[in-house]
């Protein structure tokens, strides 16, 4: 039976990261749950790094990863910034964990370039920085919630604060998505209302609906 685990996430604002979720498992040998848990965490972290590797290379089939990718995945701990445990526990004869992992894409991209496995056009996509203004953020806990939600949106690498004013905050979001696509992801969370058409504005403008 799996049970929730409340472990806080701490991230580094000056490091470009991608947040993903991954499940890992490991066989329970004897009654050594601690060792099985360690193995499950490593398995989940490796899968998280593989997800980010697929995203960076824009590949859907893991079988099409470039030669040498296994060497990167074998060093998955190099690319894991932080992680939180969403749920964990014995699952039959295995121990299972569900992690939310912050993978350092900068290091992964650097090592891919050294391998010569980086595809043309990816670098430009990951450099896209989008200005986002969010109103309705009058309390610090709402600001924290806004950053958490935006950081969890697919394609978002990092969310940096740029200006804080009364009841609003200006953020810089690094994403592989276009502003219009990012706006759709943000609005689909159900926590934001679009205030300006992203197709006709040079920034994204939202109202936070806590």
Mean pLDDT: 79
C-alpha geometry: globular
Give unreliable regions as ranges. Answer: 1-15, 117-126
Discrete helix count: 7
- The total strand number stands at 9
Rg estimate, integer Å: 19 Å
Helix content range = 25-40%
The largest sheet, given as strand count, sense and whether it forms a barrel, is: 5 strands, mixed
How far from one another are the termini? 32 Å
Q: SSE order, as H and E? A: EEHHHEEHHEHEEHEE
Strand content: 25-35%
Category from helices, strands and their pairing: alpha+beta
Major sheet strand order: 6-7-5-9-8
Question: Brief overview, please?
Answer:
This protein is an alpha+beta fold. The chain has helices at 33-57, 69-74, 76-79, 105-115, 122-126, 140-151, 179-188, and strands at 3-4, 17-27, 80-91, 94-104, 129-135, 156-165, 168-175, 192-194, 204-208.
How are the SSEs ordered, and which strands pair?
Blueprint: E1 3-4, E2 17-27, H1 33-57, H2 69-74, H3 76-79, E3 80-91, E4 94-104, H4 105-115, H5 122-126, E5 129-135, H6 140-151, E6 156-165, E7 168-175, H7 179-188, E8 192-194, E9 204-208
Parallel strand pairs: 5-9
Antiparallel strand pairs: 1-3, 2-4, 3-4, 5-7, 6-7, 8-9
């Amino acid at each position: 039976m799996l049970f929730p685990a409340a472990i806080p996430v701490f991230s580094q604002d000056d490091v470009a990261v991608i947040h993903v979720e991954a499940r890992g498992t490991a066989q329970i040998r004897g009654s050594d749950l601690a060792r099985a848990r360690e193995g499950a965490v490593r398995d989940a972290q490796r899968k998280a790094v593989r997800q980010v590797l697929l995203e960076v290379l824009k590949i859907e089939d893991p079988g099409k990863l470039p030669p040498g990718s296994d060497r990167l995945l074998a060093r998955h701990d190099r690319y894991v910034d932080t992680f939180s445990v969403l749920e964990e526990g014995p699952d039959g004869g295995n121990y299972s964990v569900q992690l939310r992992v912050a993978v350092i894409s900068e290091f992964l991209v650097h090592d891919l370039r050294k391998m010569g496995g980086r595809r043309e056009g990816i670098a430009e996509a990951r450099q896209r920085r989008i200005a986002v203004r969010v109103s309705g953020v009058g309390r610090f806990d709402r600001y924290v919630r806004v950053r958490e939600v935006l950081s969890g949106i697919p394609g978002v690498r990092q969310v940096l604060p740029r200006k804080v004013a009364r009841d609003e905050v200006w953020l810089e979001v690094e994403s592989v998505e276009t502003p219009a696509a990012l706006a759709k992801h943000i609005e689909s969370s159900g926590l934001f209302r679009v205030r300006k058409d992203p197709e006709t504005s040079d920034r994204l403008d939202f109202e936070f609906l806590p």
